[in-house]
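Blinded run. Sample ID left blank on purpose so nobody reads anything into the name before looking at the predicted structure. Input follows.
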Amino acid sequence: MTVTGGALPQLQLRRHEERRIRSGHAWVFSNEIDTQATPLTGLEPGAAARIVDARGAFVGHALVNPHALICARIVSRVEAEPVGPALIRRRLEQALALRGRYVGGEHYRLVYGESDGLPGLVVDRFGDVLVAQSATWGMERLKGAIDAALTALLAPRLIVWKNDGNARELESLPREVTVTGGAAPEHLQVREGALRFEVPLADGQKTGWFYDQTANRARLAAFMSPGARVLDVCSYAGGWAVTALAGGAAEALCLDSSQRALDAAAHNAALNGHALQCRRGDAFEELEALAAEGRRFDVVIVDPPAFIKRRKDQARGEAAYRRLNTLAMRVLADEALLVSCSCSFHLAADTLPVLLQSAAQHAGSRLRILAAGGQSPDHPVHPAMPETRYLKALYCHVSR
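Blinded prediction complete.
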């Protein structure tokens, strides 16, 4: 395939393969391309290309990686609006306006990939510091344009590109951390309602904070009795536990495998005028030990990392969710609250209640679901892309 006169390279879809993409999905898989008509070879990772259907009709402008299973990601569906600085600026303006309308403040996820029309890009806002991650070659090559647009829109003190996640490997991208505007801070400042948090940047998970749980944490007080004893399992920096203490809990215990996370949790409690206990270790082992010690809690929050990262992990992951929640129920007092979460996309929303019911039977408990939560509004779901909906949170009443 040759390109002349500055024209964009073109990728032609096989017959009927445009249907899913025209319905709004942003991903084009390599086996959907008619490589006889338009070979993928010769395209540079991150290059822009026109996607057309089998008849040559325009489908969208995309950023490509010929070496990846998802070989192209649609960024624009308007033929006169190709990928470039102007489009990047407009997408970021739209993302900022949405957060301003539905979230407010200066602490939230500013860009959520495909849902904001910028596939492969995540940007979290921590006041005057932005932490970004690019998971595709397309966004990697647009970092300069993204930096320029973010600077024009928000004038941040720093833009930290924390590109150290596993997703980079899928596109053969190097892991690295770079900073625009100065040196990377050791800690990030987070505000969640009236609460303040500090989280480590270098050793922090993801971009440093889990903004997707903000709305779910805010609902906790409505289900919690004053004076509750709280256990926060897989606590990270204590977001749930500190929220519980601020909502009237008498005591809170954070359980995590990372001492750095537990130190941050204790610090965050102190920042907000509270104190909490910490326990380091494997969640499964420590829950068994707490049960053996006769410890009981009025509220247990279970918010583990994803147990099902790939479809082949399904059976093992579901067993892990069932076992973890069984152990959690065994340390609950009678007539208590369980908040059970899953961030595994491959765990269907209607499967988690089934696993919890099975866990309740194993624990000899009766379980009733009070409410369900999902991602906070700064993680909007793209209706044509189920991949953008991943978080589940169930508030459950557990009795003997």
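Unblinding after everyone has recorded impressions. The domain at 85-185 is CATH 3.30.750.80 (Transcription Regulator spoIIAA).
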